[in-house]
Specification:
Elements (H helix, E strand, L loop, with lengths): L2 H25 L7 E3 L6 E3 L4 E3 L2 E3 L1 H12 L6 H7 L1 H20 L1
Antiparallel strand pairs: 1-2, 3-4
Helix pairs in contact: 1-2
The structure holds zinc ion.
Length: about 110
């Protein structure tokens, strides 16, 4: 796939994932406030714009990464992305534990 075509694809996916979030909030305004922990990046994100892949719920940012990965044939299974994100998940977990400890010492 050509570079230009790739950028075009990414731009399209970006727009559709953004639209997904807008549609979710329109359909269910509470989804803009409800939070969940993303199975991919491990961060707490709003429910709006999230999507279920098999049994994994991904936040809007990760949906964008996942859909781009699928579209550009960088991955075939959602597990591929979850494996790639493992380090980042650990980092998020580490940071939250570290920050909690730091706060309790104050
Ligand atoms: Zn995420």
């Amino acid at each position: 796939m050509e570079k230009e075509k790739q950028l075009e694809t990414i731009e399209l996916i970006k727009k559709s994932t953004e639209q997904m979030k807008i549609d979710d909030i329109e359909e269910n305004p509470e989804s803009a406030y409800e939070e969940f922990q993303c199975d991919c990046c491990g961060e707490v994100k709003i429910l709006a714009g999230s999507l279920l892949y098999k049994s994994f719920r991904l936040c809007n940012d990760c949906v964008l990464i996942a859909e781009t990965g699928f579209a550009l044939n960088k991955m075939t299974e959602i597990e591929d992305l979850l494996n790639k994100m493992e380090d980042k998940r650990f980092e998020t977990l580490y940071n939250s534990i570290f920050n909690v400890e730091e706060n309790s010492m104050n």
